Amino acid sequence: MFTRKSAVVLHRTLWPVFFVQSIVSFTVGLPYPYAVSWLPLIAAMAVGIGLARHTGKQVEAAARPPVEVDPPVTGRWTALNSPADRTPSHGTHQYGQTYAIDILAEAEAEAEDGERSRPSFAWLWPVARRSEDFPAFGAPLFAVADATVVHAEDGQRDHLSRNSLPAALYLLLFEGIVRVLAGARRIVGNHLILDLGDGTHAVYAHLRRGSLTVRAGDRVTAGQELARCGNSGNSTEPHLHFHLMDGPDLDTARGVPFTWRGVGVPRNKETFEAIPGPARPAA
């Protein structure tokens, strides 16, 4: 039986086949007609379109009410790519991120102790900044509910920012393509997947290298610190990518809508204050 997982693997294999033979063709003659060399590309595009349409139909057919969980952060943050503004929020249903959200930490307005403010986008210079220049880097991340850890990974490096025009073009035209071909774990970078029960799983992506305090199989409680915010994977700057999905496998899961207790779902560019579960005052 040809499963969705098989289609994902085929799609991921066809692209390198096309690129490799294209490079080889510059040095030696291929043992088949030139037109044949385009077949892997055509097939990869067809499989990709099929996967996107199939996943979109699955999501529509399996629409669920939002799952209420605690916010995964504390303090002052700003939302980007929010499902409150559109779905799929990141322009794709892939990796179960139909209802995903990105959030960026902001320095407290009243802070006078040298707390970092978030650097703005640069057109030309500086091309890149250190992760430490952003207030989100190293911010603690908390369990949104009582859960079981099903996947925990934090061995990938935190790279320089991509928040300038030259760096963003590099990410879009080169790095991003390479990461897509390398698979889901290179897109989400260091990440954590929690089983919340009732067929719901939470994903925390772009975590700081070496920051995990849990491992697969651990039980965690709402509000427990799990890791630190980082800049690994397909990330322009240190931030948290969060979403819920209906299974533990990023390649096959479908997105599940969420709402954060006490916050809701912040819209694009909306700044909000978050308090993790145990620190929340009683209603």
Structural summary, described in words:
This protein has 283 residues and is of the alpha+beta class. It has 4 helices and 13 strands. The chain has 2 domains: 4-61; 67-279, Glucose Permease (Domain IIA), CATH 2.70.70.10. β6 and β7 (200-205) form a beta hairpin. 35% of the residues are buried.
Rg over CA atoms, rounded to whole Å, is 20 Å
Task: Give the termini distance in whole angstroms.
Answer: 52 Å
Taking all residues together, what is the mean pLDDT?
Answer: 83
Overall outline = globular
Number of strand elements: 13
Main sheet characteristics = 9 strands, antiparallel
Q: Tally the helices: what do you get?
A: 4
Low-confidence stretches: none
Q: Report the helical percentage.
A: 10-25%
Number of domains: 2
Under the CATH scheme, the architecture of the largest domain is Distorted Sandwich
Strand content: 15-25%
- List the secondary-structure elements in sequence, H or E: HHEEEEEHHEEEEEEEE
In terms of topology, how is this protein built?
Layout: H1 4-24, H2 39-61, E1 67-69, E2 75-80, E3 101-105, E4 140-142, E5 147-153, H3 165-182, H4 184-188, E6 191-197, E7 200-205, E8 219-220, E9 225-228, E10 240-245, E11 255-256, E12 258-260, E13 271-274
Parallel strand pairs: 1-12
Antiparallel strand pairs: 2-3, 2-13, 3-10, 4-9, 5-6, 5-8, 6-7, 7-10, 10-11
Helix pairs in contact: 1-2
